[in-house]
Every structure is written in C-alpha cells, then in structure tokens.
Amino acid sequence: MKKLLFSAVLLFPLIAISQKKVDLDKYRFSSQFRSLPSARLDTSYRTYHVRVETSRLMQSYLNDMTPESAVQLDGWRMLTSNGHIGIQVKLEDLLPESVSTREREEIIKDRNGKETGRRRLYSQEVVYTFSAFADISDYKGAHIDNIILANRSYKQTYRSPEFAIRQLAEGYFMINSFAVTEQLFKSCVNRAMNFLSAQVTEYYGYGERTVTDHMWIIDSKKHPEYRAHRQAFLQINEALFSISANRTLDGVKEQLQPAIDYFESIKRKYTSTSKHDRKIRYASYYNLAKLYYYLDDPQAMKKEASGLILNDFDASDGRALESSALYLKNLFMETGFNSRHFPINISTFKGPRENAVVLSK
Question: Which residues lie closer than 8 Å to 92 by C-beta, 6 or more apart?
Fold first, then answer.
C-alpha cells in the first residue's frame, strides 16, 4: 500500500505537467477580397480606353496583334474610345546591339558511358533592347501618370538553334531577321501589356485576390481544448473560404460568432502568467486578429494585436498584426471605402459623355 501511495505521489507531478503542455500548429485557410486602388482618382471615373502606336519599322509586326485588348483594368469598363481615362502606349523599336557566334563542345558517349568522340556545335547570340511606355490622361486633358513598360538598360539575349557548321550559325540572324525580330517584338509587346495591366490595376483597379493564410490551433490531442479548438477553426475555415470579393460580408460575422465567443472564452479561462496559459491565449489573440482582418474590421484587429503584445508571448507577431490593422484602417480612410467585399457590375458604367453610375460604397 505504501508503495502504491509513493508511486502515485511521483506520478502526480508528471500528470500535472502533461496537462499543462500545449503545442500549437499552423492550420491554413483561404479567403478572398478585393484590392482597392493605391492612387486617388475621381470616384466617378470607371471607364478607360487604350491606344497603341509604334514606329513604321515595327508596324508590320503589330498588324496581326491587338495589344489594346490585352490591357485589363480590373473593376473598370473598357471602351473603344472616350473613356474617363485614356492610356496611350508607345512601343519603340526593337534594336539589336551585338551579334556573336557561340561554340559548344559536346562529348559523345556509347550506351556504357564511354567517350567515343566529340563534336562542336555553333549558335548565334543576338543582344537586343526594347523600350515602351504608357501615358495616362483623363478625358479633360489632365495628365495622370507615365509608366515605363520596358527600358533599354535591360539587355536581352536571343540564341539561335545550334548547327554543326559554323557558317550556318553565323548567317542565321541575317537570313531569318524578319521572323526572329517578329517573334522577339511580339514577346516584348505581350510582356509590356501584361506589366501595364498589373500596374494600372494596382494603381486604379479593384482586382479580386485569393490568399492563403494561417491560424494557430492546438495540436496536443490530450489537451482539454483540443477538440473545441479544432472545431472553432473548422467553422472559421468554412466561413472564410465561402467569402467572395464580389459579395458583401452581411451575415458572415454572425455565422462566426460561436467561434469568436470560444476564442474569447479561452482568454478568460486561462489567466495565469505561466507559459502554457500565455501560449494558449496567444493563439486566441492571433486567430481573432487574423479573422478580423478578413472581416474588414481594422479596429477590432488592432485590439487583438495589442492584447497579443501585452500577453508577452511572441509579441513581435502582435506588432506585425498591429501594422496590418493600421494599414487597413488607412486604406479605408484614403479610398473612402469601408470594406474590400462588394459587387461590381462594369456593364453599368458609362463614359463621361453619358450619365455615369457611381459605385456604391
């Protein structure tokens, strides 16, 4: 009997320690929101048109292309002319700067890997440059921006197929100059248009963004909060995954209220300054801060981030979340929006010579 009591006394601290151990693991989720413009324009401006011009030398390469249609400004309606803003693209000449012949020696081996011979192969390299830019103005004639799409300081290299005869390589570009120049010019134009689309959407557009993020969830199966923690995350994961940038958040917070209440209760339940309690509270502060970010609530997010800092467990995460909350708050103040989730029907947008439909905020 005494031995049993002695064993129980020894085991009790170990049981207590195991109950106070908590492991957190990253659980990933996806959600969607709409990017808001980083540059300020008249909020009634919601249509655009694009004009592309090039030199007489390059015009023949452009004839079977429609680069204008490749310029996408998300959340705006493209017109053939007379948009609120006009994007004038200038494609300059593709210029070869140097031509050289490269030699490569190839080792020939049999099926056993033994060298049986060598041969020389030749190719031609052409270093070339390209330049393009876009001027953006509104329909009143006011200049808005100038965007460099390609710069001649960026040297690009074209390499021909390889030949066993040096003279074939040396004459390749001269014989095939039209086809090669057309190929390179079209590639440069496509890259320039893609870059332009990305830039104007960042500055003035309302693109839809799908992102992957994470929360911290208890991964210790013996912990008393293990099942409830996972269940709360599953509720959040399902709700955030169903969010669309093109729909309002009406009803989403109400759907998430049980999970929010659970993480709030954890902060009240585990109140000591022990590492275990600070760590489990950290997860609540962190997860709620992330949740409020995707619910477009920077004030609530900042409150959780500040709590995380004061909790004194990985306080640097709290400072990073606090910065994100401030960024979101400033974004809403600067753009006049209070959410990144709203529908856009570009077919309702009219040019400046018609009655414009202003996006509701």
Answer: 54, 55, 58, 130, 131, 132
Site of tokens 């390469």: 61
Q: Report the alpha-carbon distance of residue 35 to residue 206 in Å, rounded.
A: 5
- How far is 30 from 34, CA to CA, in rounded Å? 14
Cα 266 to chain centroid distance, Å, stands at 33
Domain residue extents for the chain:
22-35+208-335, 47-204
Q: For residues 312 and 247, give the distance between their C-alpha atoms in angstroms, rounded to a whole number.
A: 38
- The candidate with the shortest Cα–Cα distance to 36, out of 184, 170, 206, is 206
Backbone angles phi, psi at 243, to 5 degrees: -70, 135
Two structure tokens written together for 128: 């070339």
| Nearest one of 106, 89, 74, 202 to 150, comparing CA atoms | 89
Over residues 214-241, the pLDDT tens digits come to: 999 999 899 999 999 999 999 999 999 9
**What are the tokens at 125?**
């390299």
Smallest CA-to-CA distance from 213 within 90, 355, 320, 117 is with 320
Q: What is the pLDDT of residue 355?
A: 60
Range in 99-103, 247-251, 354-358 the model is least confident about: 354-358
Q: pLDDT per residue over 273-312, tens digit each?
A: 999 999 999 999 999 999 999 999 999 999 999 999 999 9
Confirm whether pTM is higher than 0.70. yes
CATH architecture of 47-204: 2-Layer Sandwich (3.30)
- C-alpha separations of 313 from 90, 310, 316 in Å: 55, 8, 9
